[in-house]
Amino acid sequence: MEPVVLKDIPFELDLPGLLERLHLEEGSPDAERVRQMAQEAGAIARPKAMYGVAYIDEKGDDYVIADGVRLTSRVLRVNLDGAHRVFPYVATCGRELEEWSRSITDMLESFWASAIKEEALRCAMAAMGKDLEHRLQPGPTSDMNPGSLEDWPMSQQRQLFALVGNPLETIGVELTDSYLMVPIKSVSGLRFPTETGFQSCQLCPRERCPGRRAPYDRDLWQRRYAGH
To answer: What domains can you pick out in the chain, each with its CATH number?
Structure first.
């Protein structure tokens, strides 16, 4: 299956919600400036996403091979116990917003611009998830992202990019030599069918993480992954 590419994703910004996340009071000078910036961003924003389907060829103790690409992770391997296909993806706020944000020199406004780009990335992820669900009907799924756990390091971005296709040429997402993505507000991952549900946060002990989506389960590794 050729990768599915989504380029006409609407940028739907929830301004009141954004102001709340930024701890800004509506009607204040700062809130007004964020509103202006959001209008600027809305005029040029082009969030994008792409995803594909890869079929699992082999499962080892701490790796899987999907469409000839080896993904090394004990956690991923166990999570894919009952799966025969996976959905690699890349989503981004788009180079248009990245270039716009680079023109902003004020430190506080740069912070606000970053939050606006995050909103665009959320739109891309939501559109990707909705399209994948409609097109492929995978049932209940979970995601894993290279670098979110020590067990699946950032260096595995290269393998993930190989699985999904050519994100640089297709949606403008570049992978640097240090395995970071440009635009910065981009995300890559592997979505997979699962009945049990999984969040990488469950295995991450980091406290006060603003992106935490599930509580840390200190016994989960030993219970599910160590002695599998």
So the answer is: 4-194 (3.40.109.40)
